[in-house]
Amino acid sequence: MPAHSFLLNGQPVSVDSPADLPLLWVLRDVLGVTGPKYGCGVGVCGACTSHLDGEAFRPCLHPVGDIAGREVKTIEGLADASGLHPVQEAWIAEDVAQCGFCQPGQIMAAVALLRKNPQPSDADIDAAMSDNVCRCGTYVRIRAAIHRAALLLRNGAVPRDW
Predict the structure, then answer these.
(1) Would the pTM count as exceeding 0.85?
(2) Alpha carbon of 157 to those of 39, 102, 108: distances in Å?
């Protein structure tokens, strides 16, 4: 089996696995990174949403062989030594999570949205987050948390990799 090397949450990793193994399984089963959740395996629920080279993506859809030399960020790499990411802070302040299963993917999608659109409208948020399913139905609180995070970011709470 070939070795596949990439950056994971800022650290170089190399894994020996079949090139066609979905990255989600490499993250969870080989590297022990369990923030990205297995929800559907076909890219429709958003539970595994992470970032690839700064853009939101679904690791369940990408074979590890296609990730070589690229940078993957999961929820585990979002906070830093100075504290939580502003989106994580907003999630807590708005008491978004119920069961919490979808929240890592929701948060990673929200970070990607705010990176592209620092002042999203409700419609912008709804459109950007529509592919991330929350079975508990916390969509109103998700929207409120994104607005709160946008305000935090506008007021200078800028994460290190923004």
Answers:
(1) yes
(2) 31, 24, 17
